[in-house]
Amino acid sequence: MATLAAAPWFRARLIPNRHSLLRYRQSLCFRRRSLSVYALAGDEGDVRVRFAPSPTGNLHVGGARTALFNYLYARSKGGKFILRIEDTDLERSTRESEEAVLRDLSWLGLAWDEGPGIGGNYGPYRQSERNALYKQFAEKLLQSGHVYRCFCSNEELEKMKEIAKLKQLPPVYTGRWASATEKEVQEELAKGTPYTYRFRVPKEGSLKIDDLIRGEVSWNFDTLGDFVIMRSNGQPVYNFCVTVDDATMAISHIIRAEEHLPNTLRQALIYKALGFPMPHFAHVSLILAPDRSKLSKRHGATSVGQFRDMGYLPQAMVNYLALLGWGDGTENEFYTLEQLVEKFTIERVNKSGAIFDSTKLRWMNGQYLRSLPSEELNQVIGERWKDAGIVTESQGVFIQDAILLLKDGIDLIPDSEKALSSLLSYPLYETLASTEGKPILEDGVSEVAKSLLAAYDSGELSGALAEGQPGWKNWVKNFGKLMKRKGKSLFMPLRVLLTGKLHGPDIGATTVLLYKAGTSGSVVPQAGFVTFDERFKILREVQWESFSTNASLSAGAVTH
């Protein structure tokens, strides 16, 4: 509900135009500057919401969340989700940006019911194609006296701002054209003086709306001043365009970012002047960076396209964006788009700012990635590895086993390249020379190396690995008995000697996979893979005394 306080007294009942799908009931009642406007579209009419991006850049995650909330509200109410392109900024709007926005919305799965590429009964759906409509309604307002021609020059307007600033007053229009005579207007028209169309704002009164998210919000008219709706070049101003569009497209609920909240006063006045029913308003809070400033490029990726290119899944993005300011009151954090439609209510949207946590988004993406059907996961990562020049084929037993082994450490698809490359590498010397490697040296890893070399030279280890995991388990059990070691004392030195690393996935599965990599021809030779033959050659050449000496010298340096 919105309440406007104005001047004259009258009572009127407005009926929506014949093109509207909505069954509005609006009651206007002026009494001593009091006007009440009731918009009952929620229960008595069809729900129609819109997302109206400007094609001046990429789709920001904030815009994507607004689109998502509109989509969820429409679907939950059995209504329509309309996409409208607000491209009146001719200098900055591009068709490339529009296509990128459409592509990102489609990638997220937010299918629109009316709009570019689909059409509908309320088109056209680009503002640049609706200029004739704006001029028609501007002329209607001029004829009704709600708008007047303003011939003030830019210099005159700047002077008004300066005077207002000196008097510490709002920079409202105080020009003489609000009360100019018809003769004065005709004289300027005859001279060809450029003019704008200004909306005549009541000098007294206020507007009060019941925002579906923020509750009651009000403004006084005296903070506004007469505002321009048509520029001197004939181009309409944003607030006029959006009001005409929302009204003529029968939009019942306007769900948008809170930065548009100040625009509501201008738009409500235009609605009233044109006799259009007022929609419901819901202003969604901003998405904030961890430092609680507005999320921007300096905080990293901010557009949907960037996250897509980084390897994020659309279902993870949708899930995470929905949780930025909304929750169903449970501890659940995972929802499909269909589940969100079922659970979503505008009443549970929080009016405080939501923090964008890229770490949590990454974690959530990992959960979604690992929950993909194995065939789909294998295909996506297998193709990634082949395109990166690591493997010779994008499918097969090696690919399946490698993904099964590494997937718990993969949150984004590009992570899979680093994970496999790391597995195939053999940084033995770096590990032994590190601070973390010192306990391994002190635990007699050189003696384990001698026995391991003997097992490899005899073919015993290779024969066991050819049998897969069962062969490895039998071999390592016997090797442990031979070395009189078990648990960490056995597996830590084996991990270092076989993989060159102190940490990683299961050592048995890793060793069997490395053996397969060397015998199956699945790995591209130039991919940095160190085969078992090469590993044991390196191992054979290790001068263990040098590591022990370096460790002793280092310990002595610390002591002194």
TrEMBL record:
Domain (Glutamyl/glutaminyl-tRNA synthetase class Ib catalytic): residue spans on this chain: 47-363
Taxonomic source organism: Anisodus acutangulus
Entry GO MF terms: ATP binding; glutamate-tRNA ligase activity; tRNA binding; zinc ion binding
Taxonomic lineage: Eukaryota, Viridiplantae, Streptophyta, Embryophyta, Tracheophyta
Location(s) in or outside the cell: Mitochondrion; Plastid, Chloroplast
InterPro entries per UniProt: aa-tRNA-synth_I_cd-bd, aa-tRNA-synth_I_codon-bd_sub2, aa-tRNA-synth_I_CS, aa_tRNA-synth_I_cd-bd_sf, Glu-tRNA-ligase_bac/mito, Glu/Gln-tRNA-synth, Glu/Gln-tRNA-synth_Ib_cat-dom, GluQ/Sye
Domain Aminoacyl-tRNA synthetase class I anticodon-binding: 399-514
Protein name from the UniProt record: Glutamate--tRNA ligase, chloroplastic/mitochondrial
Family: Belongs to the class-I aminoacyl-tRNA synthetase family. Glutamate--tRNA ligase type 1 subfamily.
